[in-house]
Amino acid sequence: MKLQTKIALESKQHNQIDYNSRLLLIGSCFVENIGNNLEYFKFQNLQNPFGILFHPIAIESLITNAINQKEFSEDDVFFQNEQWHCFNAHSKLSNTNKDTLLKTLNSQIQLTAKQLNSSSHIVVTLGTAWLYRFIETDTIVANCHKVPQKKFLKELLSVDEISESLESIVALIRSVNSSVSIIFTVSPVRHLKDGFIENTQSKAHLISAIHQVVEHKKNLHYFPSYEIMMDELRDYRFYAEDMIHPNNIAVKYIWEKFKEVWINLEAYKTMEEVDVIQKGLQHKPFNPDSEAHNQFIHRLLERKEKLQSVFPHISF
Fold this sequence. Notes:
Elements: E1 22-27, H1 30-40, E2 44-47, H2 56-67, E3 78-80, E4 83-85, H3 98-118, E5 121-126, E6 130-134, E7 139-141, E8 152-156, H4 159-176, E9 181-186, H5 196-213, E10 220-222, H6 225-232, H7 248-262, H8 268-282, H9 291-310
């Protein structure tokens, strides 16, 4: 008896992720769920250098600015609710000091440009096809930063507009890194503030547009995060308390599916060793001064040094 409908996954890819890979992850908050697992297992990765970016135009803007080495100035920031913000970035970068914000924006742009050039894999996660246009300047923003809604026009990107943006993203990336594998996915997080029907329409536009762009021969791939959550995990026990975000069990389940497709089998042994060390570092002893605990710490240090001798980039 089958109690679950399973999503068919791609077979193992030829350009899989191992401990020599460099990853850039950009997009919706779900990209951080995958990224946090990559971080835990000590893969080389950079997550959302401009914070969470929900729609494809915001992602395209970041990549464009990074490749063009844009330098942010006072014209690119504004003061609202006792903080300085930038419409191109998430509020996690906002700061009470204008100069600090500008310094952060420019350092993150440089970091993004460096990662675009050196990445072996780039994961792009789209969250919504809805966006907001700032009326005063007629520009699309990545984040409204709680500026009154009357100052924006809300728009739904068409399938063609999204696919054009994705094609532009691919072209921009390939202009500086021709061999990179690009993995697209759609966030399973529902944007219910837009409305139930509107959210469904938005996700449908994103999925349709991505499938107009992905092509294995061009090293452009799709990972079905959204479909796994909606179909394999279609039960509220897999959601957080808000009944919108996937809970830890769901995130772990989807990560295991991602690992099954994209992580090289030869990396599994290293991942197991990293996991042992991570759990050892989190261990809280009953008696920190005991001989047994000192021996435990010594063995843990030996394991760390042995692993770091093979992979110098790994740091705990």
